[in-house]
Each structure stands twice: as C-alpha cells, then as structure tokens.
C-alpha cells in the first residue's frame, strides 16, 4: 500500500485528508508543522506528501528544500495545498520541489486526480 504524509497545522484539514485518503486505500501519517514532517521523513519516507501552504515555524519552501536535500534515494510526490490561486506562491513551491498543487478546500476527486497524475494510484 502507498503511504502519504499530510502536513497541515489545521487538525480539521488533516482529518478531512485522512478520510479521503483512507477511502482511497492509502496509509496516512500526519504532521502539524514542517519540522515534525521532516523528522518523520527522516525516519520513513512516504510515497506522497500533502503539504500546507502556510505552516508555523519551518515554512513550505524551507521544508521542500530540506526534504529534497535528504538524499536517501526516495523522492515522494509532493502536492502543495493552498487556499489562494496565487501564481507566485505556487511557482515558489514548484521551484522548491513540489510536484503539483491543489486549491483548498479540496475534495476526493481533486486529490485522487493529483495522486493518479503522480503515479501513486
């Protein structure tokens, strides 16, 4: 089974993502901030990461830069989640290592489409 780390400071968003992904038969881990997510990735790299736009502490771009620099041979598919269709923010995330993006609030079909595009389903 594929694994996905959901990184969001909102427990509600993590709960919604968990429900969607579990229905898609994906094993879920959660992190409430970038540092916690990076620590989890160092222990066991997931197949995919759903990454919040704005997190406390370590920002999205910093997290992506550190994630892509881990060099453990595994490169998770990262879907950047934002509440705004701000092309500058999306471009920064993609340049830093995100593979795709989705606008919140996302639904099952939108999230599934991104994971299919990333070869995870």
Helix and strand layout, with pairings?
Elements: E1 3-7, H1 11-23, E2 27-31, H2 34-43, E3 48-52, H3 60-68, E4 77-82, H4 87-96, E5 100-103, H5 108-117
Parallel strand pairs: 1-2, 1-3, 3-4, 4-5
Helix pairs in contact: 2-3
Describe the structure.
With 121 residues, this protein is α/β, with parallel strands linked by helices. The protein has a single domain (3-116), classed as Rossmann fold, CATH 3.40.50.2300. 43% of the residues lie in helices and 21% in strands. The chain has five helices and five strands. The protein has helices at residues 11-23, 34-43, 60-68, 87-96, 108-117; strands spanning 3-7, 27-31, 48-52, 77-82, 100-103. Strands 2-1-3-4-5 form a five-stranded parallel β-sheet, with helices on both faces. Helix 1 (11-23) links the parallel strand 1 (3-7) and strand 2. Helix 2 runs parallel beside helix 3 (60-68). The radius of gyration is 13 Å and the shape is globular. The relative contact order is 0.20.
Task: Give the gist of this structure.
By secondary structure, this protein is of the alpha/beta class. About 45% of the residues lie in helices and about 20% in strands.
**What is the global morphology?**
globular
- β-strand amount: 15-25%
Q: Report the CATH topology name.
A: Rossmann fold
The number of helical elements comes to 5
**CATH evolutionary superfamily:** Response regulator
Return Rg in Å.
Answer: 13 Å
- Which structural class should the secondary elements be placed in? alpha/beta
Spell out the key features of this protein.
globular, five-stranded parallel beta sheet, single chain, 121 residues, alpha/beta, Rossmann fold
């Amino acid at each position: 089974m594929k694994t996905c780390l959901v990184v969001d400071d909102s427990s509600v968003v993590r709960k919604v993502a968990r429900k969607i992904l579990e229905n898609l038969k994906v094993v879920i881990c959660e992190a409430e901030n970038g540092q916690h997510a990076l620590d989890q990735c160092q222990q066991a790299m997931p197949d995919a990461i759903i990454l919040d736009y704005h997190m406390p502490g370590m920002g999205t771009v910093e997290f992506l830069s550190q994630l892509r620099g881990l060099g453990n041979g595994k490169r998770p598919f990262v879907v950047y989640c934002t509440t705004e269709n701000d092309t500058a923010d999306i471009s920064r995330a993609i340049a830093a290592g995100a593979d795709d993006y989705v606008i919140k609030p996302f639904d099952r079909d939108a999230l599934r489409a991104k994971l299919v595009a990333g070869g995870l389903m």
